[in-house]
From TrEMBL:
Pfam families named in the record: HTH_1 (PF00126), LysR_substrate (PF03466)
Sorted UniProt keywords: DNA-binding, Transcription, Transcription regulation
Family under the similarity heading: Belongs to the LysR transcriptional regulatory family.
UniProt lineage: Bacteria, Pseudomonadati, Pseudomonadota, Gammaproteobacteria, Enterobacterales
GO biological process, one term: DNA-templated transcription
Organism of origin: Escherichia coli
Record-annotated HTH lysR-type domain positions: 1-26
SUPFAM superfamilies: Periplasmic binding protein-like II, Winged helix' DNA-binding domain
Domain of life: Bacteria
Protein name stated in the entry: LysR family transcriptional regulator
One MF annotation (Gene Ontology) recorded for this entry: sequence-specific DNA binding
Amino acid sequence: SQIVRRIEERLGLRLLTRTTRSVVPTEAGEHLLSVLGPMLHDIDSAMASLSDLQNRPSGTIRITTVEHAAKTILLPAMRTFLKSHPEIDIQLTIDYGLTDVVSERFDAGVRLGGEMDKDMIAIRIGPDIPMAIVGSPDYFSRRSVPTSVSQLIDHQAINLYLPTSGTANRWRLIRGGREVRVRMEGQLLLNT
């Protein structure tokens, strides 16, 4: 009622004739209703479709991730998820850089370990992934097997290249509960 009065004041026209028993549109009110009626119906339909989204999720979820997380965690979980949510599509982008999730319009980013921008929030979605240092029999027929970090540094390594930092990833070694980070040298750099 107050909204209608404000509109009447703004237009300088009466839109409704009010009595103690009834409210009837004036000629100006009928004209305005005939013009705005279809628009009000469209607004009502749009609001109803938005409330449907609360009950039935739909749309595209964009995720940037590393290949290992996609293969071992995300893809196996997606089978069940997509069957349960037929109106949701998932777009996976395999990327080893520290993608700006917000500016690139991703809904989530999955990375191994603690690699992430400082203003991001992280939750664990999988177990620790044990890794091992290995070498081919041919390589070790020509070189001694390292027994310490200082001996390891003298060996050639195949390194993971991180596009964001522009350098090879440092190796994180843990022995006896003590962590050491080592930058290994090598002629071969891979981004996957």
